[in-house]
Amino acid sequence: MERWAICYVSTASPYIEEKDIDSVLSYTENWNIDHSITGILLSSEGNFFQVIEGERSIIKELFDNIAKDSRHRNLIKIFNKEIKNTEFNGYEATFLSKRTSNLSQDISYLDYIKCLDSASQNTVKNILKAFVD
Ligand SMILES: Cc1cc2nc3c(=O)[nH]c(=O)nc-3n(C[C@H](O)[C@H](O)[C@H](O)COP(=O)(O)O)c2cc1C
């Protein structure tokens, strides 16, 4: 089996509400677990960050479908590549923070991912590192 991984960020559509994001998160978690797709979907302050890992054709087809979804826009791919091993053990889709107009200044951005298990925190940190190094 050829394994593939895609990671991107996107902006939630201004027309969707928190309950709509909730249904995206729960649908995604259930579907991906049922289809042996690993990774993570995070929603924070009106943005999405997602990693999907699995069999190449399933991942490519799923991404094409996700990209057409009107509940988000401005998709920016971070990577789209073959992988030897998956980085994530299962699939988790969760809110890191709700959409707020006044982002609290005293919360460090890494505090937002403290709700994830430590393996997922490390993987997300490693992906983000590419942007600061
Ligand atoms: C940000 C975002 C991420 C999504 N991620 C997934 C996903 O990983 N797996 C999935 O099955 N659907 C995901 N969806 C939902 C799909 O876009 C789509 O609604 C779902 O696959 C059902 O497609 P269908 O209506 O063509 O059957 C996501 C939607 C959004 C807005």
UniProtKB/TrEMBL annotation:
Quote any Pfam family the record assigns: BLUF
Q: Name one GO molecular function term.
A: blue light photoreceptor activity
SUPFAM superfamilies (UniProt xref): Acylphosphatase/BLUF domain-like (SSF54975)
Where do the BLUF domain residues begin and end? 3-94
The protein's name: Blue light sensor protein
